[in-house]
Write a structure and sequence with these properties.
By secondary structure, this protein is of the alpha/beta class. Helices cover 44% and strands 17% of the residues.
């Protein structure tokens, strides 16, 4: 298992280079405000609304119990952790025009691993999760060990603590899953990496984007053809 982790210094250096000092400062201030707002009792109660999955499978995939240090790191990363909604996830899987047995599932920004666990109920050849924050990666490892489902069909699950932009995608047919894990600039870099991997190794590649807040970024890439979608998700084939 790969483990590279997160560096505050590297993030600040990159952010200032990309966005300048003022925009970086503004992003940090906005993140601090969100942390303060999320600490309110009413907001915390909202975050406990998706506990059914965890209760059913005795795992920990919700946002509600993340420590403050993780929330602070999320400010630097640019996206707060959210677990995938099971109903929408299975709708996405139903729309993929593939033989699951021939494909590897890759979740970029895999967080605590809920999407990986749900993907294991399908007969993927293997499953890979890539998460930048070490504390989320560690929780995902524990969840993979704990998860038990009568529907589980794939038990070959790999977890990597790494920057998705620098992750080497495997050369086999892929379903790449995104649950709105990156701000626009990083998402653009990730899509460039996916596009380059597809050019270097010709094989079927699909991008399943749940909660597609930044779909416009993905749609800018001419090599991606949208084949299905609703307001809750978008599926692209990488040509």
């Amino acid at each position: 298992m790969n483990r590279q982790g997160f560096s505050y210094r590297a993030w600040l250096r990159e952010s200032v280079k990309r966005r300048g000092v003022l925009r970086t400062t503004a992003a940090l201030a906005e993140g601090a405000f969100e942390i303060a707002r999320d600490s309110l009792p009413s907001r915390r109660r909202m975050r406990f609304g998706d506990l059914d999955f965890d209760w059913d499978y005795r795992v920990d995939t919700t946002w509600s119990n993340l420590p403050l240090r993780t929330r602070i790191r999320e400010v630097f990363v640019g996206r707060a952790y959210q677990p995938s909604d099971p109903l929408t996830f299975h709708q996405v899987m139903a729309q993929l025009p593939i033989d699951f047995r021939q494909f590897t599932f890759v979740d970029l920004g895999s967080g605590k691993g809920r999407a990986l666990l749900m993907a294991s109920d399908y007969p993927f050849r293997r499953i890979i999760g890539v998460e930048l924050l070490p504390e989320l990666h560690d929780i995902a490892q524990q969840n993979v060990r704990l998860y038990s489902s009568d529907r589980q069909q794939c038990r070959d699950i790999e977890l990597h603590c790494a920057d998705a932009r620098r992750f080497q995608l495997p050369p086999e047919p892929l379903v790449i899953f995104l649950f709105n894990p990156f701000p626009d600039d990083i998402l653009g870099d990730v899509m460039t990496m996916i596009e380059r991997s597809r050019r270097e190794t010709s094989r079927p590649v699909f991008v399943a984007y749940q909660n597609p807040v930044s779909e416009r970024v993905v749609a800018q890439f001419a090599s991606l053809r949208k084949i299905a979608g609703t307001i809750a998700y978008a599926i692209f084939e990488v040509m």
